[in-house]
Amino acid sequence: SKLTNLGHLEMTWRSKVHFHPLLVRILHKSRLRYYGKPEKKVDMPYQAYFEVADGSGMMSMVLWSSLCPEWYHSMKVGTVLLLEEYAIKDSYPFKTQPTPGDSQMKRFATIEISLNVRNPPTKISIIPEEKVKPEWGLPEVKYRFITRSELDDLPHNHSCDVIGLVTFVGRTERARKREHGEDFWLYRWAHAVDGTSDQPFILELFATSQPDVFERIHPMTYLVCTQMRVVRNITEHASSTIYLTTSNESQIFITGWHKGQPYTKDTKVKNFIQWTKSQSEIDQITKTVIGGYYPFPRPPDNFSKY
């Protein structure tokens, strides 16, 4: 069928009601958002953002309502979609922006693709990877993996991806989203090593829309976290309070979930796998810890400093 592209849509969308089909690849995926309120009667108050791209650039795509439980888990980073009968809207100005792996990619930020059950009812097709043709010109998923030795030089809020061997995972904790509110964020702390430094990555992992992975993080698993943000607490001991926290677009993967993921082709991931092959499993197990209370950043040594 006759296809359009994202660049053409941005130039012509105001003058059209019906749009030609789109072929795009998913580059980023947000956590699932629940926006239900007691006073509003919405059947399926769910929403999820994706960043999708073709040869012309990258644009946001929003999955609405009952399409979320139907499609959210099938739409992975790297998945190629054929979209028909979608809507185009002005983009929502306050949403979070993931950092693209390819800094040269053009971003169409003024509009977004809206996928709904009606008005119009969107038709979504997933194209299997083996049927994706090079002549479609779809970009590959690119990452920004860093090693632990590179972390100390990165600025606050820098976006990166990491891979490491888990040596510690804390119990699940919770923090209020708002003071006096009844909603909580669930999170847990983890340490992961990659052999490039004596220090581990310290990871603050908030529960994403991957409960099956979040609950199964344990020592000795290979952990991949994407779209993490660097947090620097500027104190006297700046080096001891650098850690990584998840963002709205973070994805977490552990042993058993890696097969077929686009990052398996990344050079730093391959280097890490080579390093793990040179390690003694018995030595690593003796250094692992699970559970317990983990206050971080650590309070000062004595009360007068506190």
From TrEMBL:
Coiled coil: none annotated. InterPro entries: NA-bd_OB-fold, RADX. It comes from the Eukaryota. One of its GO terms (molecular function) is single-stranded DNA binding. It holds the Pfam family RADX. Gene3D superfamilies: Nucleic acid-binding proteins (2.40.50.140). This is RADX protein. The lineage of its organism: Eukaryota, Metazoa, Chordata, Craniata, Vertebrata.
